[in-house]
């Protein structure tokens, strides 16, 4: 059994507040990998099927990347407390925009592709947050996540199509996001396309262009947030939007920058603006920490309170990702290859990939394949049965 699996079963006896790290164990590699070189070698291929060198990765999985999108659940708490439906909608719209902020300094590397049925939990009692994600299909790679807090529930199915478009990499998100407030209001949206610019020369940057429409499916209000094209000399990352009543009247105006702040005007576009969302401060030495936010720096940390508690399939226990985070790059590359080969062997031996434990397909949604939380994870965590109900063999070599 590998060391990560051993850690998973050693019981924790920690009590009291948890001290969380402020930087990664090892700095990110000094040189950036050549993404355009890799793309040229694989022209016409589905990028999800390409095996990239490990230096193209950052030390987080796609499942943990989904957990980055629930950093600002304080906006959902404010939405549950708002009496006015337009104010609730504005906070939901701000939450949808805030999910982009973590990508400001990340243009060169991608998260680890999880193994089938790999999972990730984030339980932050101090924030009133419980989160679980799981890889639910392997081809195409598709992730599902669920989060909950006082008065709100969040569901998301995540996948993407990527293609080389000129000197940019086009990223088309697939799958919808849903929030239920106070048990009776359902909001949904899908993300517009993003583009990784300047793949050949110049400073690379991420640009999102198009409309993000958040709909209140229960009562008909909607918010349309436009991610504006920056142009060669224009300001980047600008957003502007309008919240509409169920009858179609304009009721609130939102503007700002998706990586830092949003303001809102209620009632009239000429009324004074009010702060709606402000991004958390960036940590020191962001360039040496893969461009991570402080939230992201902590996501792969195996704090003592998690030992013997999290599922054996949790991304924190992946030996290749752990080695990579700690700067043992050659070892991490060998481990990554071995884990992927073990997954292929399981496929050949069993005739099918391991079925998801915590999510199930749902017919509710946008027409894309969507998954919803099937329940049971947090109950199993509480009663100690999680270690036997989750997949225990994913990371054994």
Q: Please state the structural category.
A: alpha+beta
Estimated helix fraction: 10-25%
Tell me how many strands there are: 19
Q: What's the SSE pattern?
A: HHEHHHEEEEEEEEEEEEEEEEHHHEEHH
Largest sheet: 15 strands, antiparallel
Low-confidence stretches: 1-13
Tally of distinct domains: 1
Number of helices: 10
Radius of gyration: 21 Å
Report the mean per-residue pLDDT as an integer: 88
Pfam family, one: Oxysterol_BP
Family: Belongs to the OSBP family.
Protein name: Oxysterol-binding protein
GO molecular function, one term: sterol binding
Description of the structure:
This protein has one domain (3-8, 31-207, 289-389). It is built from 10 helices and 19 strands. It has helices at 3-9, 35-41, 62-68, 74-81, 85-98, 294-299, 319-325, 329-350, 377-383, 386-389; strands at 57-61, 110-112, 119-124, 129-137, 142-149, 152-165, 168-174, 177-181, 185-189, 194-197, 205-208, 210-216, 222-227, 238-244, 250-257, 261-266, 274-278, 359-362, 370-373. The strands form 3 sheets. The protein has a 15-stranded antiparallel sheet that branches. Strands 1-2 form a two-stranded parallel sheet. The N and C termini lie close together (7 Å). The model is unreliable at 1-13 (pLDDT under 50).
Topology:
Layout: H1 3-9, H2 35-41, E1 57-61, H3 62-68, H4 74-81, H5 85-98, E2 110-112, E3 119-124, E4 129-137, E5 142-149, E6 152-165, E7 168-174, E8 177-181, E9 185-189, E10 194-197, E11 205-208, E12 210-216, E13 222-227, E14 238-244, E15 250-257, E16 261-266, E17 274-278, H6 294-299, H7 319-325, H8 329-350, E18 359-362, E19 370-373, H9 377-383, H10 386-389
Parallel strand pairs: 1-2
Antiparallel strand pairs: 3-4, 4-5, 5-6, 6-7, 6-8, 7-10, 8-9, 9-12, 10-11, 12-13, 13-14, 14-15, 15-16, 16-17, 18-19
